[in-house]
Specification:
The protein is of the alpha/beta class and 200 residues long. The chain has a single domain, classed as 3-Layer(aba) Sandwich (Uracil-DNA Glycosylase, subunit E). 32% of the residues lie in helices and 14% in strands. It is built from 6 helices and 7 strands. The strands form 2 sheets. Strands 4-3-5-7-6 form a 5-stranded mixed beta sheet, with helices on both faces. The chain has a two-stranded antiparallel ribbon with strand order 1-2. Helix 3 crosses helix 6 and helix 4 packs across helix 5. The longest helix is centred in the last third of the chain and has 20 residues. The radius of gyration is 16 Å and the shape is globular. The relative contact order is 0.17.
Length: 200
């Protein structure tokens, strides 16, 4: 469901066709493919895909999600990518996965047990692909998935199967606690830390 590139409207890359109500409904419980490769600098881990992402087959696809602008403004990508270009992230040393693979209308539909199972699956995935950093996108999801009730944003003590852990704000447009400038600043701190570890 990729529409033609629309540079005339100021878009940089290809855009996604807006799914219909029927397509959104049919996307429930669909599984999205990871964007991953061995030895990435940062593997971003969302909570789980929303219906919009499930219907389009692309990560962070809903209009208003700030993941792609935050990546660009923090320097992870040299230009603003669209969700339709998510497969190109590995070129920039980044990847995307989710704690829970199945698509839901919102993350509140996920139980603690499901998130904890997701944390165990993530550990196996990280051991296989060996990213330097894993960035969990959502403090509450991180606390529940890994039993870290007192965790705060930023770098975490310990590691996950050898990867350093960093917790970032959820980039969903529904997260009013973080507007784009603050979100980009949080992403930028991770980028600087990942660059420092790659050079050491």
């Amino acid at each position: 469901m990729i529409a033609a590139s629309s540079r005339r409207r100021g878009q940089i890359g290809p855009t996604l066709a807006r799914p219909t109500v029927a397509e959104l409904d049919a996307a429930r419980s669909r599984v999205l493919r990871d964007v991953i490769a061995p030895e990435l600098a940062v593997l971003f881990c969302g909570i789980n895909p929303g219906l919009y992402s499930g219907a389009t087959g692309h990560h962070f696809a809903r209009p208003g999600n700030r993941f792609w602008p935050a990546l660009f403004q923090s320097g992870f990508t040299p230009r603003l990518l669209t969700a339709a270009e998510d497969h190109t992230l590995t070129v920039y040393g980044c990847g995307v996965t989710n704690l829970v693979a199945r698509t839901t209308a919102n993350a509140a539909e996920l139980g603690v047990g499901e998130l904890r199972d997701g944390g165990r699956h993530l550990r196996v995935k990280v051991a296989r692909f060996r990213p330097r950093w894993v960035a969990i996108l959502g403090i509450d999801a991180y606390r529940r998935a890994f039993g870290q009730r007192r965790a705060s944003m930023g770098p975490q003590p310990g590691d996950l199967a050898g990867a350093r852990i960093w917790v970032l704000p959820n980039p969903s447009g529904l997260n009013a606690s973080y507007q784009l400038p603050a979100l980009a600043q949080a992403f930028r701190a991770l980028r600087e830390a990942s660059r420092a570890t790659s050079q050491s």
